[in-house]
Write a structure and sequence with these properties.
single chain, alpha/beta, Helicase, Ruva Protein, domain 3, Rossmann fold, 11 helices, 9 strands, binds glutamine
């Protein structure tokens, strides 16, 4: 069987198993099996697979068919144009989270952001994307999961960002040494009732947002005192239908703050950005 035939066969199998984007996934899996770059694969489409390669490819296609994400099989995921190592200790970065990075970079261009904290960094994709585009910024990245922080460390090293990002172990904002200009977070926000059925591949800790999905996000909002500088920014990713709940909590905590809701490419309100007025205090704590 040639590489081209293997690709065609995998596409059919994955498509019939209702795997979205079967052509792209087939290519990722074949490149992974043959250890080829995209260009190399296309130059070698007519080469015959060895029996071992055929067997290995069949096995990865079967794993994919049984629901294991391609990113865990290949141990790679692209985010914001960068290649990240991922494994089952971390959530696989989603393209919609690039909204957070884009917004943070726009804010930083205006010159007001020098310290950034990413809460729940997982594989480190957001923090590292920011570090590479903002050479002057001091960046903290926290996670409650030590295995996740190990993955983040691998990625910091891979991208030469190890001395730019301080990885901190702990709950939410607790490990931060002080207040920062920007807090950015893609916390777990999947409603309990909508968690993926077994077999679960991604860490539940990174997905489970409690009954309405906003438990973790609300907890972060309530712990912001002393962690966000006056004039600072908070960027949060939220799940579908969650922006009214989180927005009203934020207005309650920060009367007078400006809050913007940004939809993702599917039109779902996905990112909340809050800008704190200079010298604004948390209403909850200032009375
Ligand atoms: N966007 C992810 C999903 O829908 C969830 C990510 C998260 O909980 N932060 O599976």
């Amino acid at each position: 069987m040639t590489a081209k035939q293997a690709l065609g066969r995998a596409r059919e199998i994955l498509a019939s198993g209702n795997i979205e984007d079967a052509p792209l996934e087939s290519e990722l899996l074949l490149r992974h099996t043959l250890k080829l770059s995209r260009v190399e694969l296309y130059l070698e489409l007519d080469r015959a697979l060895t029996p071992q390669e055929e067997k290995a490819f069949r096995q990865v296609v079967e794993r994919r068919l049984s629901g294991e994400p391609a990113a865990y099989i290949t141990r790679h995921r692209e985010f914001y144009g960068l290649d990240f190592y991922v494994d089952p200790a971390v959530l696989i970065p989603r393209p919609e989270s690039e909204l957070l990075v884009e917004k943070a970079l726009r804010l930083a261009q205006n010159g007001t952001i020098s310290t950034i904290a990413e809460i729940g960094t997982g594989c480190g994709a957001i923090a590292i994307s920011l570090a590479l585009h903002l050479p002057q910024a001091r960046i903290y990245a926290t996670d409650i999961s030590l295995p996740a922080l190990k993955v983040a460390r691998v990625n910091c090293q891979r991208h030469g960002a190890a001395d730019r990002i301080r990885l901190l172990h702990g709950d939410m904002l607790d490990p931060l040494p002080g207040a920062v200009d920007l807090i950015i977070a893609n916390l777990p926000y999947v409603r309990e009732s909508e968690l993926p059925p077994p077999p679960q591949f991604e860490p539940i800790l990174a997905l489970d947002g409690g009954a309405d999905g906003t438990d973790r996000i609300r907890r972060l909002c309530l712990k912001l005192e002393g962690k966000l500088r006056p004039g600072g920014w908070l960027l949060l990713e939220v799940g579908e239908g969650q922006s009214p709940t989180v927005t009203s909590l934020l207005y309650h905590l920060f009367p007078g703050a400006k809050i913007e809701v940004t939809p993702d490419l599917s039109g779902i309100d996905r990112m909340l950005s809050l800008s704190l007025a200079p010298a604004q205090q948390l209403a909850l704590f200032s009375t």
